Amino acid sequence: MLVREKNFDIKKIADSGQCFRMNETGDGVWKIVAKDKLLMVRELEKIKKDYVYDFSCTKEEYEEFWKDYFDIDKDYSEFTQKIDKNDKYLLQAADYGYGMKILRQDVFETLVSFIISQRKNIPAIKNSVEKICKKFGHDIGGAYSFPTPEELLQADLEGLKECSLGYRAEYIYKTVRMIISGEFDLDTLIRNKELSNEMLLSSLMNLPGVGIKVANCTSLFGFHRLEAFPRDVWIKRIEEKNYNGHFDEDKYQGFAGVLQQYMFYYERTK
To answer: What is the pLDDT of residues 124-179, one digit of tens each?
Structure first.
């Protein structure tokens, strides 16, 4: 089906570091796997600021899953219009990142993916995630699903280590068992929309291997808490160069994480 939207650039989203299962296959085609769904997206054209794509799914699947996954209905210009007009760097980053969206990813998949991400570059993260999916997920026709907690419960520590996880294997092994046993109630966290982001971060950091950065990434990219502001080496470098060591995310309450993605993408790819 054809999808024509403003401010929706598949390439920028895929290159923004928030998801590890969006890959270009060539000729403007993107292969996207989310949970147990596979989507092929072909870029057809760009008309002014409208992007036109061919999605391989039915209209029903698009409406029921992918439209929400890509946060299509949210107008991100309401965020960029609130940027301080004196902040030239952020204005440039937001303009450069036009088309970026914060995906609405599965929380468990996001959590495990960002536990894996520690001290790994993006190609290495993608490699480990794909190994986990192939080993413990199930075939969905051209790809493998991301394993559910129940599927990963079948994994022993050695099996996880075979997915190039290193010391992170133990974190994932223990995390899965805490979730399945109910010691860590992930479902309640997902349902509790009233929980403050500070409390959400604090709760996530009770899991093995989850520090403030992984918690913020899970909050932003899994729980879709747009106020979450992950700080990695790229963001810290930006803060040192442009903000006297600290970007004041409190100026942009409720959507600082969107601006963080603009900055990250701008610094990493420009």
So the answer is: 999 999 999 999 999 999 999 999 999 999 999 999 999 999 999 999 999 999 99
Q: How far apart are the first and last CA of the chain?
A: 32
Residue 170: C-alpha distances to residues 175, 177, 231, 237 (Å): 8, 11, 24, 30
C-beta of residue 54 within 8 angstroms of C-beta of residue 41:
yes
Provide the pLDDT confidence category of residue 238 given band limits of 50, 70 and 90.
very high
CB proximity list for 43: less than 8 A, separation 6 or greater? 10, 11, 28, 29, 30, 51, 52, 53
Phi, psi of 247 (to 5 degrees): -85, 125
Contact 19, 217 (CB under 8 A): no
3-class secondary structure, 118: coil
**Number of neighbours of residue 21 by Cβ within 10 angstroms:** 21
Kindly state the percentage of the chain with pLDDT values over 90. 94
Q: In terms of residues, how long is the chain?
A: 270
26 has pLDDT over 90: no
What is the C-alpha to C-alpha distance for residues 79 and 154, in angstroms, rounded to an integer? 43
Distance in angstroms (rounded) separating the CA atoms of residues 137 and 128:
13
Angle at 69 between CA 210 and CA 11, to 5 degrees: 90
Report yes or no: 130 and 114 within 8 Å, Cβ to Cβ.
Answer: no
Q: Which residues does the annotation mark as catalytic?
A: 213
pLDDT at 93 over 90: yes
Max Cα separation, the chain? 54
Cβ atoms of 186 and 179 within 8 Å: the answer is: yes
Closest to 103 (Cα-Cα) out of 37, 198, 184: 37
CA dist 153 and 174 (Å) reads: 10
